[in-house]
Amino acid sequence: MSKVSPTDISPIHVIGGGLAGSEAAWQAAQMGVPVILHEMRGTPDHPGTAAHKTDGLAELVCSNSFRSDDATSNAVGVLHAEMRLLGSLIMAQGDAHQVPAGGALAVDRHGFSDAVTQALEAHPLITIERGEINGLPPQDWDSVIVATGPLTAPALAEAVLELTGQDALAFFDAIAPIVHTESIDMEKAWFQSRYDKVGPGGTGKDYINCAMDEALYNRFIDALVEADAHDFKEWEKDTPYFNGCLPIEVMAVRGRETLRYGPMKPVGLTNPHDPDTKPHAVVQLRQDNALGTLFNIVGFQTKIRYGAQSDILRMIPGLENAKFARLGGMHRNTYLNSPVLLDGQMRLKAQTRLRFAGQITGCEGYVESASIGLYTGRLAAAERLGIELPPLPATTALGSLVGHITGGHVSSEEDLEANAPRSFQPMNINFGLFPPHEGPLIDAEGKRIKGKAKGLARKQAMAKRALEDSAHWVESLGEGLPQAAE
Predict the structure, then answer these.
(1) What is the b/e burial string over 92-119, where b = at least 16 CB atoms within 10 angstroms of the residue's CB?
(2) Residue 486 lies in a domain
(3) pTM for the full model?
(4) Residue-averaged pLDDT of the chain
């Protein structure tokens, strides 16, 4: 391939400086294509948003966790590994700013955002412009990646909807509270990872745990059910929740045992202050910054009003005198009817100069959003360079996620042509999106694999296949496509 000077290439415009937009801009620039990254935060009119508190790029607002880093049997861990193979900026800075979190990859939120911002500002082919894009981008922007996430500016969202003739789908995400570590009573709480599991950068004692007996648990559930929560605005009332991020009070209403089988499950934990008594329920807190001065309450996203919220949270043993750096809250998330509206190149069928990336496409989670940004950035850059990307294997984590977005839940070609309604919903990466794989039926000793072992073997086989196919795909890029540097 003949070398083309970046000065001879028109820029790609990326709208949105979250994880997806940041990754898309990085990938395209690493391939030698100029990028203009537009971010509305950091201007007098938009110093932040309902969820963002800074003007930093790739700010984490809901949790500091990229979830499991296990690439042997966990789908999100496989996605981590694939992104690292592709020179992901988000994964590189996540690894560089990790904090202990058992088997999860959690990061210092502020250090991570600062590092991503600095990397993008320092890149010679990336220009960052602060300001809101009102409505559709100008017509002379012939290659645009819209990565505006859950808080897409109303004017832009309405313009896209008018262009497509579709109704937007939306749901609510909730934010978990953050506690100052020094205010936690360690005479009642203790450090331990579930089953003492040691994760990346961890010790097996990476969570602060707070145990409840049955009587306190029942009083806690009663308080959640009776709590005064924030009311929705009229235009928000029919917006559903995303099941992967339910407020704790909603889980409590669904059943008294729901939290005990969710974020408050007591399994794999022993209270050293009372080792002979099995906890009825356990609240876990995960380190939120590199200094260890802040911990977030895992799975405790909520929309309860602040006064009642702090009182209820102080019912938790060890948090009676908790000082909160941030209480929980809610923000609205909007996403497209992507299987109908987008093609396999992540382009809007109604106007192919527009590509979409991140949560607005119908993926859920920081890692998933960044991965779609990675892929979309490469697609746009390849188009600029006159190169055709080889097909993305459906057996990979990234390929399965793209398949969900561009074809998930559509039952027939007739449905596509008719824009028929379907059950398309935001989705985290999971093995249910991968093509089926039976896995081994017989173990090394010749015995039949069954039960839980069979399920684990199947996941391990799918993870192994995904990483092998991903590595082959990355190798194929080298034949005609520049690699994204780390």
Answers:
(1) bbbbebbbbbbbbbbbbbbbbbbbbbeb
(2) no
(3) 0.76
(4) 85
